[in-house]
Design goal:
- The complex is a heterodimer of chains A (395) and B (376).
- Chain A has three domains: 7-89, no CATH class; 124-231, Beta Barrel (Butyryl-CoA Dehydrogenase, subunit A, domain 2); 247-392, Butyryl-CoA Dehydrogenase, subunit A, domain 3 (Up-down Bundle).
- A four-stranded mixed sheet of chain A has the order 1-4-5-8.
- In chain A, 46% of the residues lie in helices and 15% in strands.
- Chain A is an alpha+beta fold and 395 residues long.
- With 376 residues, chain B is of the alpha+beta class.
- Chain B folds into three domains: 7-119, Acyl-CoA dehydrogenase/oxidase, N-terminal domain (Butyryl-Coa Dehydrogenase, subunit A, domain 1), CATH 1.10.540.10; 122-228, Butyryl-CoA Dehydrogenase, subunit A, domain 2; 231-375, Butyryl-CoA Dehydrogenase, subunit A, domain 3.
- Chain B is 51% helix and 16% strand.
- Chain B has eleven helices and ten strands.
- Chain B has helices at residues 7-23, 26-33, 41-50, 68-81, 87-101, 104-115, 230-265, 277-302, 308-337, 347-360, 365-375; strands spanning 121-124, 140-144, 147-158, 165-171, 182-188, 194-200, 206-217, 222-223, 267-268, 271-272.
- The longest helix of chain B is centred in the middle third of the chain and has 36 residues, at 230-265.
- The chains are: A alpha+beta (395), B alpha+beta (376).
- At the A-B interface, strand 9, helix 10 and helix 11 of A face strand 3, strand 6, strand 9, helix 9 and helix 10 of B.
Chain lengths: 395, 376
């Protein structure tokens, strides 16, 4: 066992660090810090910069356009991105649909979709949840009926993140109603421009338009857009859920968030001295940091397993549960730290207007509200605990 | 020992509840809080006609002669409706300060106006550096002739845009955090030298940053003896804390009921999610938190008239308990509602936001835990 990085790995870290320093636009950095990435361009600018460097999809095999990094290099890359507060690369194309396509898709599908995912030409969104199928995803009802060389899709998806920008949606649809729920599901790639698709915004707690309802009314989807076999979609979906989970711990980003929390606590005054000098607040930060250290090493153990070629097992639900709990705790503590300046609604300030209160307080209450989603999405934390109980503990 | 309400108190609750049900539904709250002016001056007049604004004020001044229990009743119903009207600032803070410490002339002038809905007040006490310490003041009031001249910056003045009169705390002497040398003034918001920046708050209210630049305040607007205002302010704030605890209880009750109801109708895996034991226990904990909050809000209310130490301890105890309970109930209500709990469309998230901000108002859990420990 060895915790240190090799000289090659240290050199790699320097390479990543200077690349980010030289290429990340200042304007974007400010937006990430304030949590107000909003336009399509805000998200795509950094995606395209990384694409040109060949770094946009660290986990992809080299043959499909990945950089061919080791697990350690990917870890270092994530750390540096978090440290520099780069925008996140949205997971829907790169981390979710892409791996499904290169693992289960046909040669034609790989050629058609993968390069456009990497380049950012195609924006993907995820058509999983439905109004009646949230935690119980397998009960989904959106129907696809075969009609010659097409499927006709009818139904509704919901909580579809950033579908308002999407060119494509990958969907779980029901193709057989006569068998066990999990056995009648098919994985389809659907062009968002197809007639019959309507996207309706859902505004969330902090006022953001982040998610949507997507309606399908007799939408014609070519059979060639099906991934793998008909009625085998659940297998591909489960694969993807594991993929969704491995990045979900967010350790590097949480480290950065704690660092920023400490800066805030240094600036905020209480009884004439900085908040960070009070025992009660410093202890709360320390507790969170300790939790995060344990999670970091749990993640490293998972990564080590992965680097030996083993798939992450159901125990990776720990990463989702603890990762999101820590993220939420940091937003809580940040809210506590800023005192009364949690009140102003940052969304009411224009782009060229000075915010009310210190810069670091802007948008923090909204961020706290918004991050309640983290214990709900990607399989709620109750569902994750259920997975561990059943698949790990055998209960 | 008797925890029952009088007939008048029950009537008051029923009339507030009915009035708000008829005039203050959730959609109305959202619409009003998002448009100018952000509150309902018309409904303020109706509150006055119903007797709400005078419920806790003396009969001699147009009130109904009630006290903290009446305030608790009104505020619990306000909490259920997410009402934003500045009842606490005007009636509890303004009315309380004047009733207890105002001169005869001040009481004659202001209390009937408060009860009659003819004045709207905002409490300008917080400052950017002061956090929750009511005495940490850089706003100064310098003697000038018979009156004072105010200079300083007040932060996050809730209801600031709507007020005609500001209740302003300022330092007339002593060091920045000294207990002595604090005074409280009524200031006409139209006075020369006042500038304000108004903005909406994250919980559907409106607030202002207010700057005072050589604002002249007549001697008749100083409440209490010069430099001895802190105990008056502390008592008013403890009354406000009790009132906001009742508001939080109203919010928690709505969330508790809504969550249990949702868990009975929302089906996953072929059963209502309320059948899952893990959620049952969670909702039982929400229930326990809510009931304990009802109790401690009542305690804080009933102890407002006791010794200074008892009053302060009770107010801080309630603030600590309700700060924690409100966070738990709010977060779990969102969690159990799943994605729906995250939406702007459903009321659940709005109660969660209000509860979150109520923890901050007048000092959060840490602040009041420390205050309680220092008193115990």
């Amino acid at each position: 066992m060895d915790l240190s990085f090799s000289p090659e790995e240290e050199a790699f870290r320097q390479e990543v660090r200077s690349f980010i320093r030289d290429n990340l636009p200042d304007k974007l950095k400010g937006k990430v810090r304030r949590g107000d990435l909003e336009t399509k361009d805000d998200y795509l600018t950094w995606h395209k910069i990384l694409y040109r460097q060949g770094w946009v999809a660290p986990a992809w095999p080299k043959q499909y356009g990945g950089p061919g990094w080791t697990v350690t290099q990917r870890y270092i890359f994530n750390e540096e991105c978090a440290e520099a507060e780069t925008p996140m690369i949205l997971p829907f194309g790169v981390a979710m649909c892409g791996p499904v396509i290169y693992t289960f898709g046909s040669e034609a599908q790989k050629q058609k979709y993968l390069p456009r995912i990497l380049s950012g030409e195609d924006w993907w969104c995820q058509g999983y949840s439905e109004p009646g199928a949230g935690s119980d995803l397998a009960s989904l009802k959106t129907r696809a009926v075969r009609d010659g060389d097409h499927y006709i899709v009818n139904g509704q998806k919901t909580w579809t993140t950033l579908a308002q920008f999407a060119d494509w949606i990958f969907c779980l649809v029901r193709t057989d109603t006569s068998v066990k729920q999990q056995e009648g599901i098919t994985f389809l790639l659907i062009d968002m421009k197809t007639p019959g698709i309507t996207v309706k915004p859902i505004i969330v707690l902090d006022g953001a338009h982040e998610v949507n309802e997507v309606f399908f009314d007799n939408v014609k989807v070519p059979v060639e857009n099906r991934i793998g076999e008909e009625n085998k979609g659940w297998t591909y979906a489960k694969f993807l859920l594991v993929h969704e989970r491995s990045g979900i711990a967010g350790v590097a980003r949480s480290k950065k968030a704690i660092e920023r929390l400490k800066q805030i606590a240094e600036a905020e005054m209480i009884d004439g001295k900085p908040l960070i000098e009070t025992d009660e607040f410093t202890r709360k930060i320390a507790e969170t940091e300790i939790d995060l250290s344990a999670l970091e090493f749990t993640e490293l153990r998972t990564l080590a397993k992965e680097s030996r070629g083993q798939m992450a097992g159901p125990e990776s639900s720990i990463l989702k549960i603890k990762g999101t709990e820590i993220q939420q705790r940091i937003t809580e503590l940040t809210l506590e730290a800023i005192g009364y300046y949690a009140y102003p609604d940052a969304r009411s300030f224009g782009d060229n207007e000075y915010p009310v209160g210190p810069d670091y307080a802007v948008g923090q209450a909204g961020h706290y509200f918004n991050m309640r989603k983290a214990s709900i999405y990607g399989g709620s934390n109750e569902i994750q605990r259920g997975i561990i109980a059943k698949a790990v503990l055998g209960l | 020992m008797d925890f029952s309400y009088t007939e008048e108190q029950t009537l008051l609750r029923n009339s507030v509840a009915r009035f708000l049900a008829d005039h203050y539904d959730f959609e109305t709250f959202k619409r009003v809080s998002r448009a100018e002016p952000g509150w309902r001056p018309d409904i303020w007049k109706q509150f006055a006609e119903l007797g709400l604004l005078g419920a806790s004020l003396p009969e001699d001044f147009g009130g109904l002669g009630g006290g903290p229990i009446e305030t608790m009743i009104v505020m619990e119903e306000f909490g259920k409706a997410l009402a934003v009207e500045p009842y606490v600032a005007t009636v509890v803070i303004g009315g309380g300060l004047l009733r207890r410490s105002g001169s005869d002339a001040q009481r004659q002038e202001w209390l009937p106006k408060i009860a009659g809905g003819e004045t709207v007040m905002a409490f300008a006490f917080a400052e950017p550096q002061g956090r929750y310490d009511l005495a940490d003041l850089t706003t100064t009031a310098k003697k000038s002739g018979a009156g004072h001249v105010l200079n300083g910056h007040k932060a996050v003045v809730l209801g600031g845009p709507w007020a005609d009169t500001l209740i302003v705390t300022a330092r007339v002497g002593g060091g920045q955090r000294d207990a002595n040398g604090v005074s409280v003034f009524l200031v006409d918001k139209k006075s020369d030298g006042i500038s304000a920046r108004h903005y909406p708050t994250v919980d559907g209210q409106h607030a202002s940053e207010i700057t005072f630049e050589n604002v002249e305040v007549p001697a008749s607007n100083l409440i209490g003896a010069e430099g001895e205002g802190l105990p008056l302010i502390e008592q008013a704030v403890d009354e406000a804390i009790a009132a906001h605890c009742a508001e939080a209880v109203g919010c928690m009750r709505v969330l508790q009921d809504a969550t249990v109801e949702y868990s009975k109708t929302r089906k996953q895996f072929g059963v209502p999610i309320g059948k899952f034991q893990v959620l049952q226990h969670r909702m039982v904990d929400m229930f326990i938190n809510t009931e304990q909050s009802v109790s401690i809000a009542l305690m804080a209310t009933l102890k407002l008239g006791e010794s200074e130490t008892e009053r302060k301890k009770a107010a801080s105890a309630a603030k600590v308990h309700i700060g924690r309970a409100g966070r738990f109930v709010g977060q779990q209500a969102v969690q159990i509602h799943g994605g729906m709990g995250m939406t702007d469309e459903l009321n659940v998230g709005h109660y969660f936001k209000r509860l979150t901000m109520l923890d901050t108002l007048y000092g959060n859990v840490d602040h009041h835990l420390k205050r309680y420990a220092a008193l115990a």
